[in-house]
Design goal:
This protein is of the alpha+beta class. The chain has helices at residues 70-82, 104-119, 126-134, 140-145, 180-185, 205-209, 217-223, 226-236, 258-271; strands spanning 5-23, 29-49, 53-57, 87-93, 149-153, 157-160, 168-173, 213-214, 241-244, 251-255, 275-280. It has nine helices and eleven strands.
Amino acid sequence: MNKTSVTHYAPAKVNYRLDVLRRRPDGYHDLRMVMQRVDLCDTIEIALCDTPGIRVTCGREGVPDGPDNIAWRAADALLALSGKQAGIEIAISKRIPVAAGLGGGSSDAATVLMGLNELLELGLSDARLMEIGVKLGADVPFFIFKNTALAEGIGEQLTALGPLPQAWIVLVNPNVHVSTAWVYQNLQLTTTAELHTIPSFFGSVADVCAILGNDLESVTISSFPVIRSIKERLVSLGAQGALMSGSGPTVFGVFADESVARLAAETIAGESDWFVTAVKTL
Ligand code: ATP
């Protein structure tokens, strides 16, 4: 019997590295990123129904229901391509903080593309889904690719890295509003001469921490010094490295040891009213 619904997890990501190489004439930037999925996930339920049209519900403040939701646009793109007249209900259980540098919207969109490909039995390859995905958002292809990746171009040229050693990641989101457009307007580009070499082999969590860097961080810290304080706190609690993810404001600490990571997360949660969690890399 054909499936009429699927439920999938949509994981968050952190950027172990984010170099901004140049501004492009189309307004995007050429980037070089190392992207890692982590086990903090939204849950996406997709169901086919008899009433035509796409309906998306999320119920989280700051996330639109309906056509402004990137998951709606993902479903619309795949439905148009399929030529089918299906009714589609998408329910998003949001756990990933919104507009936080953790890629939640992009991951939801990627999960909808993969889930609908399965439900509508379209048989599209991951490469084709990635082509559709990049039109929705530059980070969408990464979540279809699934491996830890070196991401170049606007983020869509993906090369598998690793496997990287498993790490524990403590995510701390101080819940300040950072405008991604403002960050990109104010950054210092990384010059080719400064470009840090990305090794092809990572033997330990310390090797991972050796590549941590984000060109957007100093811009965001200039307006939100709390990001520097969180980094320092994470390191004082045993993180081998700490960095802001994407355009922020979420900061992550990298730990080799689960118990040290969990204690650090509990400590920071006890000292603040921020979103704090310890998760492992995927
Ligand atoms: P990135 O790291 O890719 O820059 P982000 O984690 O900073 O992304 P998102 O959580 O994806 O940001 O949200 C960015 C904006 O997209 C929010 O302002 C939100 O209103 C809108 N949005 C639309 N659909 C979604 C969705 N399914 N989940 C989260 N945000 C969504």
